[in-house]
Design brief:
The chain starts with a strand and ends with a helix. Helix 1 (31-53) packs across helix 3 and helix 5 (149-173) runs antiparallel to helix 6 (186-225). It is 66% helix and 2% strand. The protein has helices at residues 31-53, 62-88, 98-106, 118-143, 149-173, 186-225; strands spanning 4-5, 11-12.
C-alpha cells in the first residue's frame, strides 16, 4: 500500500487518504511479527485451556471444551488487546509500544481506531471491561460446573453479537470509507474475517445457551407439577 499524506503533511497508510493524523509515527515492527504475536498468544490460551478441560474426570465433551477455549481466547483479546486500546486510544498513533503497533497495523483495515472514533472507543471500552472479565468468569464457571454457566454464556454472546453488528453497520453507513474496500488483507482479512468470527460463534453459542436454559426450565416446571 502506498503511503498517503494527510492535510498536516504526515505520511500514513490509512483511508480515507486525506485523513488527518498529526501525531502518527510509522511502525518499526513488521506485519508478520505483529500477527505472529497475536495468533501465537491466542494459540497458547487455546491449547492450555484445551488441556485443562481434558484432564481426567472432566465432564466436558469436545463441543463444550471448544466453547470454553473460545471464552479463554476472548478473555485475552477483550481484556488485554482491546483493553489496551480502551486505555491508550489517544496515544496510539505516535506510540511504539507493541500493542499500540498492533492497533496501528489493524487500523489499515479500519482507520476508525487510529483516529479514536467515538463509537469505536465506546464499543471497545465496554467490550474490554465487561466481556473480557466475563469471558474468564465463564471459563471458571464451566470448569467448576457452576449452575449459572449458561447464563454467562448467553449474556457474553449477546453482548459480543450486539457490538459487532453495530461495528459492521456503522461502517456500512459510512460507505466503508475507513478501509481500502476489497483489499485481500486489510479489508477481507482484518476488517471482515477477524470480526465476523464474533458474529458466527456467538450466534451459535446464543442458540446453545437458549436450548440449555430451556431444557433446565422445562425440567424445573415438570418437577413442580409432580
Amino acid at each position: 500500500m502506498m503511503d498517503a499524506t494527510s492535510t498536516a503533511g504526515v505520511l500514513h497508510p490509512y483511508w480515507p487518504r486525506d485523513l488527518l493524523i498529526p501525531t502518527y509515527v510509522a511502525n518499526d515492527r513488521s506485519m508478520s511479527e505483529i500477527l505472529a504475536f497475536l495468533f501465537s498468544v491466542s494459540g497458547v490460551f487455546l491449547l492450555v485451556t484445551w488441556l485443562i478441560t481434558g484432564r481426567k474426570g472432566s465432564r466436558l465433551g469436545t463441543w463444550r471444551r471448544l466453547a470454553v477455549c473460545w471464552f479463554a481466547v476472548c478473555g485475552f483479546i477483550h481484556g488485554v488487546i482491546e483493553g489496551w486500546f480502551s486505555l491508550y486510544y489517544d496515544a496510539i498513533p505516535g506510540d511504539q509500544s507493541f500493542l499500540s503497533q498492533l492497533w496501528k497495523e489493524y487500523s489499515k483495515g479500519d482507520s476508525r481506531y487510529i483516529i479514536a472514533d467515538n463509537f469505536t472507543v465506546c464499543m471497545e471500552t465496554v467490550t474490554a471491561w465487561l466481556w473480557g472479565p466475563f469471558s474468564f468468569w465463564a471459563v471458571f464457571a464451566f470448569l467448576t460446573n457452576k449452575p449459572y454457566r449458561f447464563v454467562l454464556q448467553l449474556i457474553i454472546s449477546i453482548g459480543q453479537l450486539y457490538g459487532v453488528v453495530l461495528y459492521f453497520f456503522t461502517e456500512h453507513r459510512d460507505g466503508y470509507a475507513h478501509s481500502e474496500l476489497g483489499h485481500p488483507v486489510y479489508f477481507w482479512f482484518y476488517f471482515v474475517f477477524m470480526n465476523v468470527l464474533w458474529v458466527v460463534i456467538p450466534l451459535v453459542l446464543v442458540v446453545d445457551a437458549c436450548r440449555q436454559l430451556s431444557t433446565a426450565q422445562a425440567h424445573t416446571d415438570k418437577s413442580k407439577r409432580n
